[in-house]
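Case study 2.
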Amino acid sequence: MEPLPIRLARMRSLALHRRVAERLREEPELVAVASRRVAGWLQGDQPSRPYLERWRSVLERPLEDLLAVLVEESEAADELRAASPFAGLVDPRERWAIWARTREAVVSERR
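Prediction:
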């Protein structure tokens, strides 16, 4: 079984990116914000460059493909979300609510 802190971090990231996917459905123009962020990051010397390259590729795909990647449950998607260009897209209050719900769900599944 996965250690609680790792499971919690992974599930929080997934839950936040599910919300990001909802926002992108409502406001697809926000993809351009993430694309500009990735382009800027790629101009520097980034240790997460392989993930940024992958993000650049994903952000160029049709919206439905991007949304699928955001909510995919796989190790590769978990790693990609760790270098997400969508930081700040979820309001802080909503983010804290998502974190609280996720913590409760993860702790509950351990009981």
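The chain has one domain: 4-110.
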